[in-house]
Amino acid sequence: MSKPRIPLRLSPFQDQPWKALYLSYNLATLFLLHPWWILKRLFHIHDSFPHSWTLLEVIHVQQLRHVEKTLAACDWAPGVRDYRVLPKERGEETRPVWIEKAGEEYLTGILDSRLAGAVDVPAFMFGSAAESDLAAANPRALLALVPSLHHGLTVNYRNVTQAPFPAAVIDCLSAYLYLLRRVKPSQIVVGGDSAGGSLALTLTRYIRDGIKRPELLPRALVLFSPLASRETDDGQKRELLPPKNLQRDLLDLKVINPYMATRLLMTNPFSLIDSPWLSPASSVVPAEPGLFANFPPTFITAGGAEVLLEGIVELERRMSLSGVQVVFHLEEDAPHDFQGFSWYKKEVRAVVFAKLAAWVEAQLAM
């Protein structure tokens, strides 16, 4: 196995007692910062956030940016469930199920990795890790609005804090094969938000190019604020090139990207991060007509204030260039992944989901 390309010491405060001290300090200062954030907003002191945002929305975004910095610095991932354990709780609309790991015949090429083999995966028929989880918001909204959608399956895949690439893709492939044993591909809509949107794209590409079974592609893709490009330099810090919304979105990529890239790659070659598998909208990847050829119809949403916007716009352009039927809804001034946040404008989210629901219903009726 090749030597790691990036340091395996992930965070400066990952060891105790420094971790506990750093966490305590930053969580305490989180409350002390609230008055300063309020003053900055009220008196427009270095206020980079959209004028249409309410004070409460600004505070929520500031909190998330502060917490991201804290978690990355001490390698802490609160709320991440153990993928080896099937949760016992059952909600009104949710039941946990085990997903059998994908067979070796499906793990070739980019997924043939000794870094992350296939495992049985916990999943949730309809919900996410729990009905109250943030990740459950989007599928719950769609199921409520689309009569043709009878069930949802969300996967408790191994995220980057638990295993590097391609673990999450393998887990999603296992879940997709689980569905194919029960329904036809034409009855499946694959979706994801943020990094989950990236996973949806990678899974689709693997079905097309990895196992070369285009007849198994889903009926449609739904991508909420998808991470479509990881534009990076070649330095050891693995920092993204600064996008225009770097200072006003809830994602502070300057802080979290070096940490996340390290977690994602580990001993994988750095060239992987600028490949079509992880960054299909990257300037390093040629924008050829075949890049997304035969991909299913796709609905993409994005916020005008989000840090990933440039990559999402380029993703839509490249998919259209490949002949994919794309509907792109850009919500002016909205932050990253705005659809799933209950604190963001309810009326805006309602319009987006109504438009998306009508589109999904039309796709499933074809």
| Strand segment count | 7
Rounded to the nearest angstrom, the distance between the terminal CA atoms is 48 Å
What percentage of amino acids are in beta strands? 5-15%
The helix content is: 25-40%
The main β sheet shows up as:
4 strands, parallel
Structural class per helix/strand content? alpha/beta
Please tell me how large the radius of gyration is: 20 Å
Compute the number of helices: 8
Shape: globular
Q: Which regions contain 5 or more consecutive residues with pLDDT less than 50?
A: 1-8, 233-240
Mean pLDDT: 85
| Biggest sheet: strand arrangement | 4-5-6-7
Summed up:
The chain is an alpha/beta fold and 366 residues long. The protein has helices spanning 18-42, 55-74, 137-145, 167-180, 195-210, 253-265, 309-321, 346-365, and strands at 95-99, 121-125, 153-155, 189-193, 220-224, 298-303, 326-331.
